[in-house]
Every structure is written in structure tokens, then in C-alpha cells.
Specification:
By secondary structure, this protein is α+β, with helices and mostly antiparallel strands. Helices cover 29% and strands 27% of the residues. It is built from 14 helices and 22 strands. Strands 3-2-1-4-5 form a five-stranded parallel sheet, with helices on both faces. The chain has a five-stranded antiparallel sheet with strand order 12-15-18-22-19. A four-stranded antiparallel sheet has the order 6-9-7-8, with helices on both faces. Strand 1 (4-10), helix 1 and strand 2 (28-35) form a beta-alpha-beta unit. The longest helix has 18 residues, at 245-262. The mean pLDDT is 96. It binds adenosine-5'-diphosphate and magnesium ion. Residues 121, 144, 146, 153, 155-156, 188-191, 195, 217, 274, 285-286 line the site of adenosine-5'-diphosphate.
Length: 425
């Protein structure tokens, strides 16, 4: 068996988790991460190329005998990194730019959902402010307004009143606050319920789901405060038990994979459905074209398969239908963030206590860097600390016991990751 040189693209805790999981594969030889962080530097070699420098990444991969590139974030996928690598004969994990439109254009994703009969919020699409307002002013409130393109998690406004919708329309369509991403606005019905993430490997036709996960987007406990990139995650989430993963897969992920294949845009990679479980059943809020962060940090430790095998099957259309093999038990991941995050925050602060964390805890780095052997903060979300247990309550306890051992000035984290679900049994 020939072993592969693998490059992971990105610099978050998701990418550290990917590097960690790939390290366990007997099929991996040299492992690189571009640009990586203080955690990936220890178990792989960091390559100083930013994740959105797609031409430089493709050239570097071809020049350095890389056999596989695993793309973490959405931006390089939308910019066509996979297309460029394929043209240079380098294997890549992730969808092409056209298939990545499922995430990079919310209006395109909406029309695909309608075509494939996938349940989603009722909506309308506008690029003209006057028409948007004519529509918005007579809708039921709250009303949801979304920038069509990639907006780094900041493009969704939930307007409580017509005045707020008017301000959002003006921001997006007149003042261009979201830039090109906001040239088109999706206005949709507000859905009440519980949110859940369902991710699957897709090989063009076959869909192999992971266990359901739950993200926590707001910065403070009880889902209060501003939105963040994600403050923690748990898996498996039991929220979807009454529907079942097989049912959600066959009614949501499979029809999308089939519709894309039928359109001549076969999807290879991880397809992520952000779901709202409403009183009327599950509805899709959005699709992402890659693994989620922080969901990946709890999903990969639960994955009981070789990641290179799965990636190869995904690329070559040889996935086994049905759920991928999962380990028993639960994982709970808690994000430690810098003071002020998701607003402005300091960097360069020393991180201590990692040597106190027990051996069974996983600590995935995001905004960290190693300087002369010293670990310093270097971003808003700094670490994801992942605990495990036979029950969700035990996994939470394990994670928090270890979170408390880690220190940097101004560090904050939510105390209630997975709390509500654990209380429910
Ligand atoms: N139709 C909706 N009804 C209620 N909440 C919504 C709706 N659409 C989005 N949201 C909320 O806004 C968040 C962000 O929306 P999403 O479509 O996932 O966009 P993005 O992740 O690109 O910012 C969701 O996680 C959810 O909390
Ligand atoms: Mg989202």
C-alpha cells in the first residue's frame, strides 16, 4: 500500500481535528496544514499559505508531491480550489466551485431545494430595494433576511419589525454592507424550533450520514448575546430521534445529492444540512459545502472509520450507503474564546494549563501560535476542549473539568454546552 502525502487547508480547530484524525491513518505519510495553527504545528508541518490563496495552494501541492488535499473552509471551495487541484492532477476532498454554490449562493440553494422537494422556509428573492420592501412590509414578523453570498456568518438578520427589515434591506441592497455577497437578498419565513446539524459524506450519488450534532452559535449561556462562529458542540444529538437519521437523510440530503447529479453537477465531499425541527417537521435553514466548526471537533472523534478510506470512497463514487460507523458514547466540545470575542479581542497572550489536562481529553487549537516553544493566543476562538462519556452528562462533565484547568487572560466560554439536551435525559 502506498502512503499518501496529505495537505489540510485551513487554520481552525476543525482543521486541527482533521489533522489529528488523518494522523491515525496508516495510509498517511507526510502531513501538512496551510496555514495551520499552534496545534497543527505539533502533529503536522505548517505551510505559510493562507486558505484563500487558491492558486498558490494548488501550485504548492503540485510541486510538493501532495497526493490528497483536504479542504476545511468554504471560501477556498467557492473560489475553485478543488477545480484547480483536479486540473493539476492532485486529488482533492471537497466539492467543485459550481457544486459549492449550495453554500455560496443561498438563492441557488433555495431553488434547488424547491426542485428537489426538500422542506425549507417559504421565501422570495430580491435585488431591488423597492421591490424587497413592497414584499417585506406585508409579511408576518419576525422575518428573516439573508445575504445571498458568503458573509462569514454575519449575513443573516432576523427582523422583529418592518422597520428593522427596512433597515436590513437598505444595508444590503443600497449601502452594500455585505459587499457582493449581499447584492441579492433572500427574504424568508421565520421558523421556530430546535436547531440541529446533519452532515454526510456524498460521493456523487450515495449519501453516508454522520451522527447528528448540535452547535451553539450565541456567545453567552441560554443562547443569548451576539452570534459567533460557534461556542461549542455536542454529538450525537438526540433531538432528531423522533425522525431518525435515515428518514432525514432520505428526505433532505439524498434528494439534494440526486438533484445535483441530475443537473450534471455531481457533489463530492461533505454536505452539511442546518435544520430547524419545527412543530410542522424538519426544515432546512441552509446547506454548507464542508464540515462545520465546531461540529467537526466532536464528530471526528466519534468516527470509527479510517478517514482516508472514506475520502477516497467519496471521491471515486464508492461510498457504502447508510450511516458511517460511529463509536459509542457522546462527545462535548467547549470553545475557549478571547476576551471581547466575537468583537475585537487582544492576541499574543500566553496560554497555560494544557499540561494539566487529562490524557483522554482532546484539545483542538484554533487561534493559537507557537513562538519559541511558547503557546500564545492568536485569534477569537482559541481552543476547543472535547470531553467524552457514556452519557451526554458525563461527556459535559469531562469537558468542563478540563476546560477549568486551562488559562489565558480574559478567556471566556459557555457553561451550558449540551446542557439543555442533557437535562432532557
Ligand atoms: N428561517 C429562519 N427562521 C429562524 N431562524 C433562522 C432562519 N434562517 C436562519 N436562522 C437563524 O440564523 C442562523 C444563521 O442562518 P444560516 O442560514 O445558517 O446562515 P449562515 O450560517 O450563513 O449565517 C441560523 O443558525 C438560525 O439560528
Ligand atoms: Mg449557518
Amino acid at each position: 500500500m502506498s502512503r499518501w502525502n496529505v495537505l489540510v487547508v485551513g487554520n481552525g480547530a476543525r482543521e486541527h481535528a482533521l489533522v489529528w484524525k488523518l494522523r491515525q491513518s496508516p495510509r498517511v505519510d507526510h502531513l501538512f496544514c496551510a496555514p495551520g495553527n499552534g496545534g497543527t504545528a505539533v502533529i503536522a508541518e505548517n505551510v505559510p499559505i493562507a486558505a484563500n490563496q487558491v492558486e498558490a495552494l494548488a501550485a504548492w501541492s503540485a510541486d510538493n508531491q501532495i497526493d490528497l488535499v483536504v479542504v476545511g473552509p468554504e471560501e477556498p471551495l467557492a473560489l475553485g480550489l478543488v477545480d484547480r487541484l483536479t486540473r493539476r492532477g492532485v486529488r482533492a476532498f471537497g466539492p467543485t466551485a459550481v457544486a459549492a454554490r449550495i453554500e455560496s449562493s443561498k438563492s441557488w440553494a433555495k431553488s434547488l431545494m424547491v426542485e428537489a422537494n426538500v422542506p425549507t422556509a417559504a421565501y422570495a428573492i430580491f435585488d431591488d430595494a423597492v421591490a424587497a420592501w413592497e414584499y417585506a412590509r406585508i409579511q408576518r414578523y419576525p422575518l428573516v433576511l439573508k445575504a445571498d453570498g458568503l458573509a462569514a456568518g454575519k449575513g443573516v438578520i432576523i427582523a422583529m419589525t418592518p422597520e428593522e427589515a427596512k433597515a436590513a434591506i437598505r444595508m444590503a441592497l443600497e449601502e452594500r454592507t455585505f459587499g457582493e455577497a449581499g447584492r441579492t437578498l433572500v427574504i424568508e419565513e421565520f421558523l421556530a424550533g430546535e436547531e440541529m446539524s446533519l452532515l454526510a459524506f456524498v460521493d456523487g450519488r450515495t449519501v453516508a450520514p454522520l451522527v447528528p450534532a448540535r452547535d451553539h452559535k450565541r456567545v453567552d449561556d441560554d443562547d443569548t448575546g451576539p452570534n459567533t462562529g460557534g461556542m461549542g458542540a455536542i454529538a450525537p444529538s438526540r433531538l432528531a430521534d423522533r425522525y431518525g437519521v435515515e428518514h432525514l437523510t432520505s428526505t433532505i440530503l439524498q434528494p439534494i445529492a440526486s438533484a445535483l447529479a441530475d443537473r450534471g453537477i455531481p457533489y463530492h465531499g461533505v454536505l452539511y444540512a442546518g435544520l430547524m425541527l419545527t412543530a410542522d417537521g424538519p426544515r432546512v435553514l441552509e446547506f454548507n459545502c464542508r464540515l462545520g466548526d465546531p461540529e467537526t471537533q466532536v464528530l471526528l472523534p466519534l468516527l470509527d472509520e479510517d478517514l482516508v478510506d472514506l475520502i477516497e470512497a467519496t471521491a471515486t463514487g464508492q461510498l457504502t450507503p447508510g450511516p458511517v460507523r460511529a463509536r459509542a458514547g457522546y462527545r462535548c466540545g467547549v470553545v475557549l474564546a478571547s476576551d471581547g470575542y466575537p468583537g475585537a479581542y487582544p492576541t499574543g497572550l500566553p496560554i497555560s494549563g494544557l499540561d494539566q489536562v487529562d490524557d483522554e481529553t482532546l484539545v483542538f487549537h484554533a487561534g493559537t501560535k507557537l513562538v519559541d516553544g511558547l503557546l500564545l493566543t492568536a485569534g477569537g476562538r482559541v481552543l476547543t476542549v472535547v470531553g467524552h462519556g457514556e452519557t451526554l452528562a458525563a461527556a459535559r462533565q469531562h469537558a468542563y473539568q478540563n476546560v477549568e484547568k486551562i488559562y489565558f487572560a480574559g478567556a471566556h466560554y459557555r457553561r451550558d454546552i449540551g446542557g439543555r439536551e442533557a437535562d432532557q435525559g
